[in-house]
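Lab notebook, page 48
Experiment: co-folding of the full assembly
Goal: obtain a model of how the components sit together before planning crosslinking
Operator: M.T.
Materials (sequences as entered):
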Amino acid sequence: MGQSKIHPDQMYIEGLAANDSAVIQSIYKKFVPKVVSYVMDNSGDKDRAQDVVQEILILLFNQAKANKLELTCPFDAYFFLLCKRKWLNELKKISNKGVTINEDAASINESAHELADQTEEFEEKQQLFDAMFHKLGDKCQELLKLSFTIKSMEEVAEKLNVTYGYVRKKKSLCIGQLTEWIQENKNFKSLKK
Amino acid sequence: MNEEHYILFDQYLQNEMTVGERKKFEKQLAEDSEFASAFETFKTVNLQLETKFGYEEEREAFRKNLKRVSDTHFSKERKTKVVSLKAWYYAVAASVAILIGLFFFNYEGNPVFEDFNNPEQAQFTERGEESVTLKQAEIAFNAKKYKEAIPLFEEILKVNKTPEIQYFYGVALLEESQFNKAEAIFNELKSGTPVYKDKALWNLALIKLKQKDYKSCKEILQTISQDYENYDDVQELLNELD
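Observation: model returned without errors.
Model output:
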């Protein structure tokens, strides 16, 4: 992906990561109406469309923050595709009837598909990671949360009222537990790249 | 892998090993593929945790801001529809007014600044220390108390110069007819981040319009890209200038 050319629309991604209101507003003005009419034309309503859009934008924020989002196609195509797929998946969940996802591949460019796949993979990986994190004991969860929010382990120890040595060791072991689960999990492995 | 290994991994990542320990560790990485693969996963977990918790605050701020923009966007859409139902009445009222105007006043054919002057509401995200001044500026701006807002913006820009704040500062200057200063701000924005390019051009055109310099106004309008989110206004003003 490194050498593919970055599209000038990358500014939308950077704007999202920087929480720039003007960028968010212009995304709503320029790209959201199309999503809304698509959802409404496909058994949804405005509120549903609003939710889909917010979910996708939060996902893009996360992916951008993890520095894993380089746009190689117009934002419009990529964003619409993601929203569309998300909505069709919701529909699938609501109705038991099979919904055929018609991608009309010819009309959308290939790199939009590729990028949308990557974003979905990022999301899956994140969800899987979250699920594993919640499998940890409460103590591990709290300690990791503090370690990665506060960053100074001395402060973490003080907050938890334990010694520095204990916190350090416990942190390594909690991450070790997650490491073990992830290594056992085939799904995560296939998503690893 | 056993507990010892995970403790080693963390020490290595935190840069807490002696040169000798480091060498030994790296040697093991090179020779023992299982060890190396566990270490890779350990690093991935660290990265995931950093993303999950390191940006928690920013993510919350983003979520809030997103919801606000989304709510405004969708409620505006609904409002426009209501207005359009009443538009017919307004249209009648307006034509009557224009007729009266034509009869009684020397009707001027040129567009006026006031008709195109719709400054958007400022919605700044809170950013730490300067947030009190920022909030005051936001309130003053949204209440159209531009004279009050200007010094507040100037104070903020000294410590935190972002295109967003510059933009609203520029609009406030335009409203107060401080044309030279406003022009300087928008010229700077025009060549900065692409997000503000067309917005800046539109305001540069408004500066000319307010000074009744129709020719320059038109020239600037013609450079605005059709992708601009409020291109309708550009088109309308261009039509009226013709």
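Interpretation: Chain A has a mean pLDDT of 86.
Next step: discuss with group before ordering constructs.
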